[in-house]
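User: Fold this; C-alpha cells only.

Assistant: Input:
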Amino acid sequence: MLQSASKGIRSAAVVARHNARLFSDVAQAKSGCVFVDSVFPIQVGGFDLRRYIGYLREEDLLQAVRARFATVTAHNFTITSVEPHPKDGGVFVRFDYNASDDSDALHTIEHHLRQRLKQDGALPSWLGLGTHAGQVWLVKGTPWTEDMNRYASQILKVSFEGPDVHEESLYELLRPYGRIGELSEPKPVPSGTPRSATVIFRTTRSATIARNVLHGLSVQSGSATTTRLRTMYEDPIQGHAVRDWLSSHPRIVLPVLLTLLGTLTYTIFDPIRALMIQGKVEDWFDFRENKIYQWLRTNTYDRIYTTTPLSYEADVWKERQEAAEAVKTYLRDLPTTIAFIHGPQGSGKTTMLKSVLRGTERKTLVVDCRPLLKAVSDTQLLNALANQTGYWPIFSFLNSVNHLIDLASVGLIGQKAGFSSSVSDQLHDILNVTTEALKNVSSSHRNHIRKQMQEEEKQQSRDVENARRRSSIRKGTWHDGRLDCVAGNGVMSELGIGDELFGDGDEVEVISEVKEDQRQKQRSAEDVEAVESLPIVIVRNYESKGGASKDELMEVLAQWGANLAESQIAHVIVISDNRENMKRLTKALPTKPLNLVALDDADSKSALAFLRQKLKDADIDLNFSPEQTNYIERLGGRASDLESLIHKMRSGQAVEEAVEDIINRGVGEIQKNAFGDDAEDAKNLPWTREQAWIVMKKLASQPEISYSEVLLDFPFKGDETPLRNMEHAELIAMGTHNGRPSTIKPGKPIFRYAFQRLAQDPIFQATQDLAFNEKVIAGAESYVKAYEDELLKLKDIGADTGFWTSAMGTSTVSRRARYLLDKIRSYQTKIENLEKTNAGLKRVLAQVVGRVKARSRYLSLFMPNLPPTFTSLYRLALRTTSAAVLHTSYAVKPLRRIWRTPFENAARVIHKLEKNPSPEIKADLQLWLSTWERRVESTLALLYNSSQSRGLSHDVTRNLVSIMRFYISDTSTTRLPSWKPDLDVNAPEYKIQVPKPAPTKRKEFEQLSHQLAVRSAFVAMNKVVRMAEGRDGLVLGTVKLQRNFKA
C-alpha cells in the first residue's frame, strides 16, 4: 500500500511539472481573436424564437468553424477556443500565433481565414438549408460577452473614456463594418458622465460586427492622449421618446388624437349604443317577454290567479273618449307633426294614453322629463337621459377630464383642443344615436310584420289550392301527377294526362280573380305595415322648470321630436300639464300645426263612480249620504285629489274629515306658493301679493271670472305676464275661446274652497285687503298729484284768457280743467272710502291682537319667569302636535288642549324648585321633573312618527283627538256664536242664548245617567292611559274638566 501510494505521488509530480512547462510555453506565445458573424440568428428581442433553432445546431456549427479554420498555418496559427455569442449571431475564435510584427501578422491571419472561407466554401447556415453569408473580422478591442436583456439594433452608442474622438476619425473607424446612415456628435452631459456619439447603421448585422470588434479599443485622440471606446446598443424606440415627441408637437397630436377618438366612437361605440337602445325598445332584456317565462306563467300563476279588466273604466273615462279617438286617429296615419296632450295634473292623461296603447303591439320609448329636471349636474342629466333611452356605454366621467385637457391645451397651444363639448351637443349625440336605433326598430318590426303577412298569404294560397283541388276531385277533372310514373312511354305519358275529364277553364278565371284580390290586399297591407312598424316616442312631464339649462334640454327634446315626426321615423306624443309648454314645439315645427288633445277633470258622476269602485276594490262598501256627496263634489274630478281622498278613507278617516284635510292642505299650498313664506320670499315670486289676492278674492265668490276684466283692472293694468305665471304655477287655469284666453278659474277644483277659506280668514283677509288698499291709495294719490300739477299749468295758461273768472267757460282749457277736477273728485272719494275700509280692517286686527294679548297675559300670570329650555320645549310640543295631525285645524286644538295640563303641572314644579324647598322635597321634585322630561322626549318621538307614517302612532293621536272632541261636544251645553268680521263687538248676534231644558223628571234622570256613564267610561279610560304611560314612558295628556258656561 505504501509503495503504490509513493508511486502515485511521483507520477502526479511528473504530470504537474509537464503542465507547468506547457503553460510557460503558451504564455510566451502571442494570442488574438477574430469574430465570425451570422453563424447564429441575431436575436432582436426576448420574443425571438429563432434562437432555439440555433441552440439545437450549436455543436454542429462550432465544430464546422473549428474544422474549417484548423487548416490555416500562417504564423503558427493555433485555435485555442471557439466561444459562441448567440445574442449577436456570431462566434469568437481565439488563437495563438508567433510573429515579430503583431499588426502585420494579425492582418495576414485575417486574410488567410477569409481566403479559407472563400476556397472551402462558406460555413453551413443555422437553418441547415444552405450556407451563411458571414465574414471573419479581426477583433481590435476587448470582447465582452454578456447575457443581459440588451438586444441588437441598428443604433450603436459609442462612449468615450477620455477626450472626444473627431467625427471623421470615428467614421473612418466604423465605416468598414457597414453603411452608416447617421452619426451624431456628442451632446453636453453633466459632469462626471462620459460623452457619447450615436451611430445609426443601415443594417443590424453591421452594428453587431462593429460592437463586438471595437468594444474596448483605445484610439489616439491627440498627440499624447488616448481614448477608450465603449459600445452599447440603443433601442430603436427609446424610453419616453414617443411621449416626448407627442408633448412637443401638440398642434399635430391633439387634432389627430381627437379624430381618432371620434372615429373610434362612431365606428365601435355608436353601433353598440344603437343596439342597446334597440334592445330596450324591443324589450330584449325584459324577462317577462321571454317565451319560457310566458309559458311558465301561463301554466302556473295564471291558472290560479285570474285578472279581469276593470268594468268601471269605460264609465269613468267616458268624457275622454274624444281625446282617445283623436290619439288613435293620429297613430293610424303616417306622422307629419307632434301630438300634444295637455291637461291639468291628475286629469288622467297617462291613463288614457295607456288604455289607447294597451291593445296595440307598437314599440314605445318613454322619456320622462321629471328626473331630467331634478338633475343637479350635467353628469346626472346625461346619465338620466341615457338610462331612459338605453344609451350604453356612456363615459360621463370623461367630461371633467375633457375640460382639464382643454384647459391644458389653452396653455400649450393657445386654444382649446375641442375635447370637451357643451351639454346640448352631448344631448344631441345621445338623441341622434337614439334616432338611428329607432330606424332599426322600425325596419325590424316591418320585417316581422312582412313575415307574418307572407305566412298568412301562403296559408291563404294553400287554402285556395286545397279548395280548388277538392272541387276538381268532385267534378272528376283532377289529375294526379304521381300516376305519370307508371303511365308508360306511350301517348298517355307524353300528354301527361289520364282518363279524367277535361276542365272547362272556369277555374283559371277564378284563380286570376283571387290573385288580383290578393294584390289589392297586399297593397293595402303594405300601407298599414308602414304605419304599424313605426315606434312611438312618448315625452312625459314636458314642462319649463329648472332654469336656463333645463330650458335648453326642453328645446333639444322639442327639436328631436320634430325631426322624428317630419322624417316619419316615429310617432311623437308629448304630455304636459300646461298648455303654455307647447310654444317650444311650435317653434320646432313652424310650418305645421300641432295635433292638440285637451283633457279636463271628470264630472261629478264619473268621480263618484271612480271613488266607489276604488273603495270596493279595497273591500270598503259605502253608501254616500247627500251631505257626503256634497263634500266629494268639492274635489271636482281631479284624479290626484280623488286618490288622496281614497287613501285617507282607507286609513279610517270619514269623508268630511278627509275632504277638510285636503282643503286645509290646499290652503297651506296656496299661502306658500302664491304669497310666499315672508316678505323676502314674496319678492322672488313672478307676481305681487296684491295681484294674487285680487284674483283669489274674486274666484272665492265666482266659479270663473272674465280674463279681460281682470287684465285691464288694477293691479295688472294690461300686463298678462303675472297671469301666465300663475297659470304655469297651476294656481289658476285659463279657458280659451277661438284660441284666445277668455276666462279664469281655479287651478284645481279644490282651490275654489281653499280660496274661500282664505277670504273668510279674518286676519289673512284684513292683512291682504290692507296691503291692497294701500297700493290703490298710493296709485290714486299719484294720479291726484299729476292732475294737480296739470291744473297749475292750466291756471298759468288761462290767466290771460279769463278762465279763472268764468266758471262756465266753454274753451278747450276750461273743458280740460273741468275734466281734471272731476277726476280728482272721483279719486278723492275713492281714497276716502278706502281709508274708512282700512280703519275697519285695523279694528278687526286690533280685536284679534287683543285676544292674543289676553292669552299672553294668562300665560305670564300662570307661568312667569320660566327657563328658556322649558318654553322652547313647550313651543316644540305645540309645533309637533300640529304636524302629527297634518296641521288640521279641527284636530290641532283638541290635541293641544290634552297636552296643556302636563306642561302646567311641570311649570308648577319648576316654580316650587325656585322657592328653595327642603332637600328631601327638592330631590323628589327634581326626580319628578327629570322623569317628566324623558317622557316628553318619548312623546315628541311618538308625535313625529305620527306625522311621518300611518301606523300605530297615528292611530293613537287620531283616537285622542276623537275622544277629546266627543268629551267637548258631550259636556258642553252652551254653544258659543261664531265670530263674524263684519259685525261690531257689541252686536246682538254675539249675545249668548243659554238653553233652558224642560223640567221633566224623566229627562233629568236620562241626563244624569248619561253623565254618570260618561264619567265612568272616562275614569276607566284614564286608568288605561296611565298604564300605557307607565309602561312606555310617555305623556298622553290629561282631559281637564271644565265648568259649564252660565249666563
